């Protein structure tokens, strides 16, 4: 991982945003890092598989803004 990238997840969490949209997250190790930190920081995390349809996108939605029982879903479409 690039050194600057290692600092990015904590900087994002510090902003306490309700929704975070990340792009250009191509490598599996980087995607796993963002998924792990997002979940530990109270977000529902969506990221497609890096092996089959790697769009480089990750979405975080803060769980405390969701109504109880709300299921957050995302869809993908290859271009």
Helix content: 25-40%
What percent strand?
Answer: 15-25%
Which series of helices and strands comes N to C? HEHEE
The whole-angstrom Rg is 13 Å
Low-pLDDT runs: none
Biggest sheet, spatial arrangement of strands: 1-3-2
What attributes does this structure have?
79 residues, 2 helices, alpha+beta, 3-stranded antiparallel β-sheet, 33% helix
Explained architecture:
- The protein is an alpha+beta fold and 79 residues long.
- The protein has two helices and three strands.
- The protein has helices at residues 3-15, 28-40; strands spanning 19-22, 43-47, 58-62.
- A three-stranded antiparallel beta sheet has the order 1-3-2, with helices on one face.
- Helix 1 (3-15) packs parallel to helix 2.
Summed up:
By secondary structure, the protein is of the alpha+beta class. It is built from two helices and three strands.
Write the layout of secondary structure elements.
Blueprint: H1 3-15, E1 19-22, H2 28-40, E2 43-47, E3 58-62
Antiparallel strand pairs: 1-3, 2-3
Helix pairs in contact: 1-2
